Amino acid sequence: MKDDFDLETLAIRAGTQRSQFNEHSEAMFLTSSFVFESAAQAADRFGGQEPGNIYSRFTNPSVTMLQDRLAALEGAEFCVATSSGMSAILACVMGLLSAGDHIVASRSIFGTTVQLFGNILKRFGVETTFVSLTEPDAWRQAVQSNTKLFFVETPSNPLTEVCDIAELAGIAHKAGAWLAVDNCFCTPMLQRPLDLGADIVIHSATKYLDGQGRVLGGAVLGSKQLMEGVYGFLRTAGPTLSAFNAWVILKGIETLKIRMDAHSRNALELAQWLETLPQVERVYYPGLVSHPQHALAMRQQKSGGGIVAFDVKGGKEAAWRVVDATRMLSITANLGDTKTTITHPASTTHSRVTAEARVAAGIGDGLLRVAVGLESIEDIKTDLARGLQNQA
Ligand SMILES: *Cc1c(COP(=O)(O)O)cnc(C)c1O
């Protein structure tokens, strides 16, 4: 397939392979292994002289279709699909780093990623320095002679801070390190980190790529050379994506463009409405003119995305009242779903962080995060207004 199709076309057609039956919709290949015509063919497949499938821990046609489609969307040479977002991050670091290497990571990354870097990798001799996402000088100062990897999420969760990917890629490359961007919040429809100079893109496909909260999945993308190491770890260690999950995500991606546009539209309208309410202290959303990095975000992203955070006046009590007054919104920390979700970060996703560290990170007791879904925006507002208006 040519590279110059638009993203909405690639999302629907890139990577499609047809079997002998010439099916129109992509097939799901539920098989653990593949058979050979002869002993000689088996030997050639195992020896790598003949391309083709052997065993679904290595390759599977449904998984390959998803990998090729995602690679086209991110503009990557190669994609390695994994069983979850966390196994994508694990495969990335296990495939590319060794004991004695050093990571510089943003402090504002997914909590489990902080645990993986700070606790588990540390036991295997890989140290991580955590720095502020928005202070390029802190990244420069954190570099050591053994620094191999920079790791960020932009926009960050839950405060939607944005970093300049091109600038950070420059700092990483000068230090002889790779820049990995967890592109879960934007998806390639809103932001393509490789075009901006990043070396690796990570996805939790569990979120917007599936888009309907059905399955877990993940992906690592980058050059063929880098992905060889990642794939080598995956086929040996085994956190491979299942054919079923690959197929669900593959079909989910076909509507990614219209979903991301609609998530962003709803989120912007919600953020603008929240800003007008006297009960709301502050709204965090990159699409708002009041966002401190609005200009950078609008240069780097096609739109603000679906995540909105806001501080309610009255602290935890007032914030919990808003959560408990909802009748439609789902009270859950998940995101990237057609259904709108609401969470109180201080007592859920960030409850393991000390109160002091939370305040330093700007995650106050009155903060709420809404992952805006695709329901009617009027219904979403009505559901939030119930708890907000009680507390005037
Ligand atoms: C959810 C999430 C992950 C982890 O993905 P799983 O599929 O749950 O393993 C990683 N990064 C970000 C930004 C996420 O939101």
Features:
single chain, alpha/beta, 15 helices, 12 strands, binds pyridoxal-5'-phosphate
Helices, strands, pairings?
Blueprint: H1 7-13, H2 39-47, H3 61-74, E1 78-82, H4 85-96, E2 102-106, H5 111-123, E3 127-131, H6 136-142, E4 147-153, H7 165-174, E5 178-182, H8 187-190, E6 200-204, E7 218-222, H9 224-237, H10 243-253, H11 256-275, E8 280-284, H12 294-300, E9 307-312, H13 315-325, E10 330-331, E11 341-343, H14 355-360, E12 367-371, H15 377-389
Parallel strand pairs: 2-3, 2-4, 4-5, 5-6, 10-11
Antiparallel strand pairs: 1-7, 6-7, 8-9, 9-12, 11-12
Helix pairs in contact: 1-3, 3-10, 4-9, 13-15
Bound molecules: pyridoxal-5'-phosphate (PLP).
Residues 84-86, 110, 153, 182, 184, 204, 206-207, 216, 218 line the site of pyridoxal-5'-phosphate (PLP).
Task: Summarize it.
The protein has 15 helices and 12 strands. With 392 residues, the protein is α/β, with parallel strands linked by helices.
Low-confidence stretches: none
- Please report the first level of CATH classification, the CATH class of the largest domain: Alpha Beta
CA radius of gyration is 22 Å
| Total of domains | 2
Cross-sheet strand order for the largest sheet: 1-7-6-5-4-2-3
Average pLDDT for all residues? 96
The CATH topology of the largest domain comes to Aspartate Aminotransferase, domain 2
**Structural class, judged by helices and strands?**
alpha/beta
